[in-house]
Predict the 3D structure of the following.
Amino acid sequence: MQKIQQQSHRVRVLLQLLLILTPVLVGYFWLTVETPYDFLRNTGIVQTSFDINQLAETPLTLGTRLLAMLTSMIYCSIIMYALKILIQLFRNYENRQIFTLENATCYQKLGYSVFYWVGGSIFYQALMTLILTFNNPPNHHMIAFGFEGIDFLTLLIGAIIVIISWIMKEGYLLADEQNYTI
């Protein structure tokens, strides 16, 4: 049990670090993209699902960067929500709370956050293509919607996580009922 506590503590600290870094890196990305300070893309740390050079025919203005950053922050809030849930889950593991109703609820929320992620990606892609082509000449604006095979797989994984959460809830309720049976 002590090993579980130690590993849970390490994972929780890592997740907390990621929670803090996510908005910082999103802001840094959009303020430096297509500039000499574009460290994240030049090193391959960040890869976008769209080619900024193909979409934006003119250099990105500060307004475009800020709108893109705001859109990305809204989309990344789904990741931050999932990170918050995972932090709570590993905090429970750290406190020796393994098979609890709260953990089952965490898994359910985590599964739903995967659904939110896929739904958000559809709107994110549409908004981002519109924002990046906003300063293009007339008749060169674009909006793109997409749903790819990986999105279907992601929805399937989310459904599996939700089903596991239901099983965990039922298992908790059965164990709780047996505890009160004399």
Notes: The CA atoms of residues 134 and 141 lie 6 Å apart. The chain has six helices and no strands.
